[in-house]
Amino acid sequence: xxxxxSPRIEDFRARIARFVADEVMPVExxxxxxxxxxxxxxxxxxxxxxxxxxxxLWCLQLARETGGQGLGKxxxxxxxxxxxxxxxxxxxxxxxxxxxxxxxxLEKIATPEQKARWLAPIVAGKVRSAFAxxxxxxxxGSDPGMMLTTATxxxxxxxxxxxxxxxxxxxxxxxxxxxxxxSDDPRRGLTAFLxxxxxxxxxIARRIPIMGPEEHGGHCELVFEGLELPEDRILLGEGMxxxxxxxxxxxxxxxxxxxxxxxxxxxxxxxxxxAEDRHGFGVRLAxxxxxxxxxxxxAMGIEIGRLLVMKAAWELDRGGFAKKEVSMAKxxxxxxxxxxxxxxxxxxxxxxxxxxxxxxxxxxxARQARLVDGADEVHQMVLNRHLADEGRDFWHWDxxxx
Length: 402
Description:
By secondary structure, the chain is of the alpha+beta class.
């Protein structure tokens, strides 16, 4: 495993770092540029997106023929970390969830016709998208096998009935990927469909209030009451919905971790800057051993997270599934982000708890990290299953033949 990055990736990393510092951070610093939900407002966002496109920093994660730069997962890990030095960074480069994961899965499995109709507008930044899978109890969540939303075939069309909730970005999404049950087969019972916001037979029941700041479009509850979709809206084939979720969610979990590492570093940066300048009882905070221990521990945790993410990215780039690696990264980095925000607030004191810095924003945002795309406990169970199946080989080293 060689994690040395190429000169091309380093060039993208350095350019992104400069763009975030020179263009995005000043916009973030002015609260007039924020919307009512704690995200960047649309006018400054569109201005920054135009600049990112002009500098060739747009959709770097996608293949060249799709409109990106083909960075691969390891290149994405390097660049996404830099993007999320700012809380507004990823969306500026069209690398934020849920569009990021939706674009990557459509690029991988959609037909040419589906790519032209559903993917290209997201890549161009003309529309936003959402992935509608999670359901209220007793429906499907981390266990998609519990899914209750149905797609019943009538003639050459499928009629959708059911409910989804906590669907990220739904209030502003135009294009949706929807998971619904088409049979009771335990492995081939789910099917993925594409639909447009303007089609009849469904509506948004509510935008669910949450503790943290929101992505554009919030987290919504959707109701399907006879949405009719033709057969050409199916992704990958009828009964292949579980496969679609596996293809989408594994890399998407990892891209969350890539971005969260950037936020964790930002927390450490704010904490260090304050500790360097703040004095109390005749001693500078940075000179106190207790502060040094906290910051040193965070630095180590961030580096462990980077190594876990990079190993998972390396495994994906070479064609593996990286199930263990992604689960380990997801658990560690989600908890690291929450810890980094908490420690930084503690060091900053009342300043950290106020809105004079973005620490309180990151702290509220960080709590969801241990829930989204699989709670900690789900990933810990996944790792235990691998341990039960593999025994001591759980920790094996790959070796070259010959």
